[in-house]
Amino acid sequence: MNRRYEALLVLNAQGKEDTVREIIDRLESEFQKEGAQIEQVQKMDKRQFSYVAGPLDTGYYVNFIFNADPELIARLRAKFKLDPEVYRQNYQRLPEKKEEPAKKLAKANPEVRYTPKGSAVCDLGIAVNRVYTTDSGERREEVTYVDVVLWARLAEIAGEYLKKGRPVFIEGRLQMDTWDDKQTGQKRTRLRVVGESMQLLGTRPPGTGAAAEAGGENRQTAAPPKPSAATEPDEDEIPF
Q: Which of 128, 152, 212, 216 is most buried (CB neighbours < 10 A)?
């Protein structure tokens, strides 16, 4: 029976800093060749070792979250011990992942616009899918649509990398907007989420490169250690 694991690999990329992305892709392929099911790959950048016990004092840290048979761990240790680009490795068992609602873009591809003061803003809608089982054992799915607004760098990342149907995880705060309808004169309200951090999920689209990674991209569903944060807009810049 497969279990959930985390592998922390420290890469020896000395003199090959420009090829770190290629090294990570190769290692991911090695995991898959051995039968591991990759859930997430998270690059944690270059770090100084707290103590030096070998020829290197820095390394690139990469987390691999995967599902595999427990017997596979020993084979992975032996395999990467012989890999010249893997300097250190550590494995630990993780709790089984709980089923969570999937969040995907629901409307058309988001478009970024700019306020008169030059702040980027992006309105988008996501569909939150919830799958559950009734008392009778019937499996059902329900969808809730949520309006979201992103500001500043988050808005620009969304406009560049998000597409209709791509999974995304957004954290933020609720905001109630109130305005007068120009046609009827009646007061209108809308509850939406003001995004404060965003995480791109799923497989990286072709051509996104390192910029998407800087925006908080992961291969599957896990929160990055340093998500991109939104900048609070001025009150007179809030669009309606």
A: 216
Residue 121, strand partner residues: 113, 151
Sort 239 into a burial class: Cβ within 10 Å, 0-12 / 13-18 / 19+.
exposed
Residue type at position 219: R
| Torsion angle of C-alpha atoms 135, 140, 141, 144, degrees rounded to 10 | -50
Can you state the angle between helices 20-33 and 72-81, rounded to 10 degrees?
A: 140
Cα dist. 220→8, 37, 89, 203, 224 in Å?
Answer: 17, 11, 21, 7, 11
> What number of other Cβ atoms are within 10 A of residue 117's Cβ?
9
Question: Domain 102-237 is of which CATH architecture?
Answer: Beta Barrel (2.40)
Best CATH choice for the domain 3-93 from the list 3.30.70.60, 3.90.180.10, 3.30.428.10, 2.30.29.30: 3.30.70.60
Residue where the block lists tokens 């250690």? 225
**What pLDDT, in 10s, does the model give residues 51-107?**
666 777 788 899 999 999 999 999 999 999 999 999 999 999 988 766 555 566 656
Domain boundaries, the chain: 3-93, 102-237
- Over residues 114-118, mean pLDDT: 89
How far is Cα 27 from Cα 136, in angstroms, rounded to an integer?
A: 45
Asked if 120 and 46 count as a contact pair (C-beta separation under 8 A), the reply is no
